[in-house]
Fold these 2 entries.
Entry 1:
Amino acid sequence: MENNVKLMQGNEACVEGAIAAGMRFYAGYPITPSTEIAELCAEKLPLVGGKFIQMEDEIASMAAIIGASLTGVKAMTATSGPGFSLKQENIGFAALTEVPCVIVNVQRGGPSTGLPTSPAQGDVMQARWGTHGDHPVIVLSPSSVEETYYVTVKAFNFAEKYRVPVIVLMDEVIGHMRERVKLPDLSELEVVDRVKPEPGKKDYYPYEVDSDDGVPPMASYGEGYRFHVTGLIHDKTGFPTRDPQITDRLIRRLINKIECNKYDIIEYKEESLDDAEIIVLSYGSTARSAQRAVRMAREEGIKAGWVQTVTIWPFPSEVVDKVCGKARTIIVPEMNLGQLVLEVERVAAGRLKIEKVNRVDGEMITPDEVLQKIKEVK
Amino acid sequence: MQHHLEKYFRMDKLPHIWCPGCGHGILMGAVVRAIDNLKLEQDKICVVSGIGCSSRAPGYMNFDTLHTTHGRALAFATGIKLAKPELKVIVVTGDGDCAAIGGNHLIHAARRNIDITTIVFNNNIYGMTSGQYSPMTPKGAYATTAPYGNVDRNFDLCKLAMAAGATYVARGTAYHTNQLIKFIEDALNHKGFSLVDAVSICPTYFGRKNKLGNAINMLKWQKDHAVSVSVAEKLPPEKLEGKFLIGKFHKSEEPEYVEEYDKIIKKAQEGRK
Ligand SMILES: Cc1ncc(C[n+]2csc(CCOP(=O)(O)OP(=O)(O)O)c2C)c(N)n1
Ligand code: SF4
């Protein structure tokens, strides 16, 4: 299996993971620090019979992947902050129409064009609430190149399983860093495909749910179902309605199909939690600094523990729940002025002390900075 | 409605939401008649629209249909066509949808020469949002956002599409229905990006604001002011004052995008750069 070990960039691992998960359509518009994802898709997709297109902007890219997905093809786009903002209206469209797709955001410093080549984690809230209205979303954030591969595969699996846009929220450090990656045997990789209606089903309703998970089977265009898809509030037939009851039921179902399945979706990693008095909770590349800091603290006899939230949305409330009562303090380092920490505060509800370590200067948070905070609160 | 056309409509969704006298119904009928005349396979047609009165048409049409975000129909359609080339992709859009918010997608779809047929239900106004001026409202005309007359110069969408690389371009009107059906047939038969500027009427807003009378008067206005390109060639410029041109403006054979991309796939798989 030695030839399955490669040195690669996070952006490259993302493309490898996507293709392994079955992605066969990519539409994008170049933007640092995500550009390598487009470049690699342009090179690799034709090799597997897939399609790459460089669209005229990010709005068009998002539109194109939704169109492609409606034909039954797994589709992805990648971007960074400004492009992510442009995609939001169509991300909302995908959420309401339940079209599976994957959106990668390799975050840069912001707002505006900000710091194109510097790391940041400022899009956490935008990833959750970027588009208008109440809507479901899944957001995953990898902390290493290898994890990027698996997270991307998962993103496609969740998109297909729950008919939802899934966002892979990376940061520049992960996107551009090169690390050793052990790729799995493709035969061992779990790849999920969307559930289709039984072939030849006569009265197919694209939004009729007959399973417990709240996810309706999805036909593809061109298979004879002649179904309608609209961004307007619709009933099970897919046609617009203004019925308050149906509207309410639809929006709640969309939210619930993620909420009720969150134990399937949520992934986090932990270390030394059992006796920890101080927990450092983090995500993305910052989680690496946090882990190192916790290990250094342990060497100095401080009872510190580490949590990495791979799933950011839905927020892994149970991790915070789990440590409340045991630990005294949670430290949340992030490369923004405090976004995910708001969720930690919400769940902790005053049960333990919460401290932040923040940076918005385009530089990484170092293990020493986190360690210093650990010592401060000890 | 002629009985044999009923299969192309979602009869349970009719009657439509359009105002009495709106030209969009005639145009939708023309699209369906063109499809019927060509005997296209119903299950291999996908109709895509943006947002607007015009863009409500796909909801009534019995195909795979997609009602997208405002202005983005062509971008969605591009994804559909490239991902599943066997589908015949038709975009139904309004003048605001296509020329304002969606202008960028229009020129780029034309530039790529991707095999999509775009029918613009052009009523020279924003109907759905109740009568604001569009990029195709003539200069000087009135709209709710142009209470003193429109200062913006308007697009000639056909020229724009041609300049951007569309390989079939024609303009017809709701009044000249048979000719319009012919243009739509040609467009559907054409391999590459085709655009038909189908001049509609919006008596509710454009007509009322500009004192053009009822729907019948507006259709008559089309009859009196439309000049076919072949006739126009022989007329002195002063005779064309205040008139607009209809007809087939352009047809050329150029490599089509999806087919060109298939060559890329072949090249890549043969290991050539
Ligand atoms: C992003 C966005 N901006 C604005 C609107 C509001 N809006 C809906 S339809 C429309 C104009 C439609 O005009 P046109 O395309 O000419 O079609 P018509 O209604 O005249 O047939 C506008 C501005 C919207 N839905 N989305
Ligand atoms: S507002 Fe104008 S375009 Fe819209 S349905 Fe009424 S007449 Fe037609």
Entry 2:
Amino acid sequence: MLISNLEMVPGMRVRRHLGLIQGSTVRAKHVGKDFMAGLKNIFGGELTGYTELMNESREAAMARLQEQATALGANAILNVRFATSTIAVGASEILVYGTAVELERMGV
Amino acid sequence: MTPLPDGNPRVPEHINNPPQNALLEFGSLVAMVGLVMAALTLLLVLLAGFLAPHIPFRWEAAAVSDVPVSAPWPQADAALNQLADDLMASMDPPPAIPVQVRLIDMQIPNAFATLGGHVLITRGLLDSVTSENGLAMVLAHEIGHIQHRDPIAVLSRSAVIGLLWAAVTGGENFAMQTLFGQSGGLTALRFNRDMERRADQYALEMLAAHYGHVQGADEFFQAMVAHQSLADQDAGRWQALFQSHPLTRERIKALQQALPAQGEAERRPLPPALHKLTRPEGP
């Protein structure tokens, strides 16, 4: 699966446009990580627990995006964008969206 | 020529919203929280049991300044305290924690060791023993609990559990107050079996040191077993006793193993101040 945030891929052309697809997940860390993050807030520094949370969320959201593309029979996702928002205290959503397409090599 | 899309194809719905059984999820979450709570409780209970005996006794004594129970028989109290002091003095070295004994007006034969080195003996207990030796065994057993710091260990254990569950359930934090509020009174602290066995062993040593033999050590427990048939008819009265001393028969067996080696020896009569409080017709 080719994933790109370009709108076009050089040397390829869109044969079929399959529409908007998205992958999202809402996740929280356990209280221990929240507590650690609270302590970090006092002294400053990277909240590694939350960095890890966002990483996991991105990966999960990307996996879901690809799953949707596969379900539509796409071979590429173009114009991919990420967005995030806070859903509740200590929980956040990662949303990744893009356009599912079927690409083919441009004929000579 | 690129074909134009004729409407977006349908994306399967479950991808971003995987189906799951809410009940199953709830169950597994509750199970996990329960497991963590159980582990935490166990850890804290062990920790409390381990640390409690190291709490300075004067802190404990300060927490319960006095037993708020009326003293109906000052002479009997004096005789009991004298007996306790004699028993403790016979040990080498004598126990470090001072013990205060008080006779209370309850018909259920029982004895309690509680915070601050207080031992409470019920009047009913005097009816269940025929000699000073039998009484001394019970007294020495309770002194054993106090010397081993069992009351504070039990209290810390319940306090820890109470606080932990109050913290988790977000409930009012009255566990500590309730415990300290009751501990001065007649709260029969539930000692565990190990504590009971250890106190029995300690009491036997104390009796042997004081009298030179342990005759009469099983008097009280024999009286309890004799009343076990009564327990069936009169459950309410005896229930409390058998709950706080669940091992009566096992304890008698253990005591009797210590007895035969000693041979028959003289038992002392109850001190006069205590004897006159026993009911002439017996229990």
